[in-house]
Amino acid sequence: MKPLKLEIIPFGFSVTFKSKIYNKKILKGSLLDVKKIIVAACGPLMNLLIIFFSIFSKYEYLKKDIIIFSNLLILMFNLLPIYPLDGGRIIKSIIHIFLGRKTAIIVTNKIENCLIIIITIIGSIAIFYFENISIFLIIIYLWLLVIQENKRYKIIKNAYT
Q1: Which parts of the chain fold into alpha helices (H)?
Q2: How far is the C-alpha of 128 from the C-alpha of 132, rounded, in Å?
Q3: Each residue of 91-109: pLDDT tens digit?
Q4: How many CB atoms lie within 10 A of CB 44?
Q5: Distance CA 37, CA 97 (A)
Q6: 107 with 100: CB under 8 angstroms?
Q7: How far apart are CA 38 and CA 89, in angstroms?
């Protein structure tokens, strides 16, 4: 990689490199979205690393199972495609790169709304079967996230029209 420019800023140096990305959409305006995808993927990746290292660790069996199970739950929860969560950020950035910002907002909102209904149905069955109140609390939290994102979606939709 060849540096394009070197800047001296008050807190140090800034080096800009020539990008080898061939997609013109990414190169022109969506390189920031590629960075957002990488940052959003770091959280679930850390959960995977913790699971991997705990499998090969020398903890007693019960502690190892708790670590693996809790990190697996956090991983699955973070990868839900609901916007403030990591999965939602990844989906929105990928759609933004290939289809544009307006389409990314519309598609992400539709995915969120469909998914929350499916999660509510499955969660209701799980509450009845497992008799666990924590499932109900998680569903309420996810509904609050989706309602908040729907309000933001309506404001952005009105701005486009």
Answers
A1: 24-25, 31-55, 61-78, 86-99, 101-130, 133-160
A2: 8
A3: 999 998 888 888 888 999 9
A4: 20
A5: 10
A6: no
A7: 10
Q: Are 104 and 96 in contact (CB under 8 A)?
A: yes
The one-letter code for the residue type at 80 is L
CA gap 122, 124 in Å, rounded: 5
Locate 102 and state its tokens. Answer: 């307006």
Q: In angstroms, rounded to a whole number, what is the distance separating the alpha carbons of residues 82 and 89?
A: 8
Residue with tokens 């940052």: 39
Q: For tokens 């990314």, name the residue.
A: 104
51-60: per-residue pLDDT in tens?
Answer: 998 888 877 7
Residue 139: count other Cβ atoms within 10 Å of its Cβ.
Answer: 18
